[in-house]
Write a structure and sequence with these properties.
This protein has helices at about 10-45, 50-65, 65-75, 80-100, 105-125, 130-140, 145-175, 175-195, 210-215, 230, 235-265, 270-275, 280-300, 305-330, 330-350, 350-360, 365-395, 395-410. By secondary structure, it is an all-alpha fold.
């Protein structure tokens, strides 16, 4: 009788590919308004500051529902939670194009209605990244989770990179509302695909064989109460949240204002601006999984704390240096190059952050990552409004210089982050 374990199936990579595609959709829906703002603002008589409020409204909704989103992923499973979330935010994306013709505009004005719709979109998208971390924890072995979350979140780079040129082209040819309608249809299609092809755990998937089950070796984690007391007593968690808030502030400079910066400040036309606005996000696409791979290798060789800290600090500090340089150089193309590397190094650090939440607690990885990402979006809620205000008061070099300093601060804080120590007084979660 043949007792050999069969060659493992590769459904874990299918799940990872689906997460990558969902993160692509997530950032298409997030970035498209920064491009369409070029036509929306004059159409509605909006100022830069008012558009900053609309950008921030999304981030506030996104920040407030990070922890509930992570808890839902831990409690109900990633299959149903991500499906519902995708449908929700896809509907909100479509409403972004129609809001001026709805009763919301009559009640709150166009700006207020846009803020409400983008807030609701943020609520839906809040589920995504904590659910990704839950899925990676369920579907990948411990020594591949940094790479796994790097690949999954790496879709951010592709979604953000493809959106400016495509959205600009669609906007020029068919008008800005079409951008949102197409993005909505894409999200609904992705929700159907995720529901059909995904499962919460390997043992639930009909295509997973015994070989892949053996490779993963981890039984499904039983649902337990969230150890909030242990979380509050673990300094690493709070340093992680603060440091990631620095990353969030800088990330939303790119997500909200980079395209408009190229068109309004650096003098590119609408279509060329859309093309060059892809550069930082292409850098994210490359650097994010690279950073995940590096942090896994360093963690395996030097321990979790050193492996995560070296990757996180390196990425954040180099990001700050590149952003500072990009803000002061005269050449538009040198500025684009330097700022693009800044975005790449910023996302080089991402894998270290998200892997650290799993290092701290496998059982509550979704909730912990939601808590951490709340920090990112506190920073992200400030950035879209503060960035143009600083630029109007003292110029874009100062505005970008502030972002650079915040990135470097986030890197320095890695000196206090020790995921290898686990949670305080909760041995079962280590």
């Amino acid at each position: 009788m043949n007792t050999l374990t069969p060659r493992p199936s590769r459904i874990r990579w299918l799940i990872l590919a689906l997460l990558f595609l969902i993160s692509v959709v997530t950032y298409i829906d997030r970035v498209n308004i920064s491009v369409t703002a070029r036509q929306m603002m004059p159409a509605y008589g909006m100022t830069d500051q008012q558009m900053g409020w609309v950008f921030s409204a999304f981030v506030i909704g996104y920040a407030l529902f990070q922890i509930p989103g992570g808890w839902l992923a831990d409690r109900w499973g990633v299959r149903v939670v991500l499906t519902v979330a995708l449908l929700w935010w896809s509907i909100c994306t479509a409403f972004t194009a129609m809001v001026a013709a709805t009763s919301l505009a009559s009640l709150f004005g166009v700006v207020g209605a846009l803020m409400l719709v983008r807030f609701s979109l943020g609520v839906g998208e809040a589920v995504a990244l904590p659910a990704f971390n839950r899925a990676v924890t369920n579907w990948l072995p411990a020594d591949r989770r940094g790479l796994g979350i790097g690949i999954a979140i790496g879709g951010i780079g592709l979604g953000s990179a493809m959106t400016p040129p495509i959205a600009a082209w669609v906007m020029v040819n068919w008008g800005w509302p079409t951008v949102f309608f197409l993005a909505s249809l894409l999200g609904i299609g992705m929700a159907i695909l995720w529901w059909l092809l995904s499962r919460n755990h390997p043992h639930e998937h009909p295509w997973v064989n015994a070989g892949e089950q053996t490779l993963l070796t981890r039984e499904p984690t039983a649902t337990t109460a969230v150890p909030w007391r242990a979380f509050s007593r673990t300094p690493t968690i709070w340093w992680l949240v603060i440091s990631y808030s620095c990353l969030g502030y800088v990330a939303y400079v790119y997500l909200s204002w980079f395209y408009l910066y190229l068109v309004n400040v650096r003098g590119f036309d609408v279509l060329r601006g859309g093309f060059y606005a892809s550069a930082p996000f292409l850098a994210m696409l490359v650097f994010c999984p690279l950073g995940g791979w590096v942090t896994d290798r360093l963690a395996a060789r030097y321990g979790l704390t050193t492996g995560r800290a070296v990757t996180g600090m390196t990425g954040m500090v180099l990001a700050g240096c590149a952003i500072a340089l990009g803000g002061i150089v005269d050449s538009p193309f040198l500025a684009i190059t330097s700022l693009s590397f800044g975005a790449g190094w910023l996302y080089f650090a991402v894998g270290a952050y998200w892997a650290s939440t799993t290092d701290l607690s496998k059982t509550h990885a979704g909730t912990l990552s939601g808590l951490m990402n709340t920090g990112a979006n506190i920073g992200g809620a400030i950035s879209p409004t503060l960035t143009p205000w600083l630029a109007n008061q003292w110029g874009w070099p100062v505005s970008l210089g502030v972002a650079a300093a915040i990135a470097i601060l986030g890197g320095v804080l890695w000196l206090r982050i020790k995921p290898g120590d686990g949670l305080m007084r909760v041995n079962s979660d280590k």
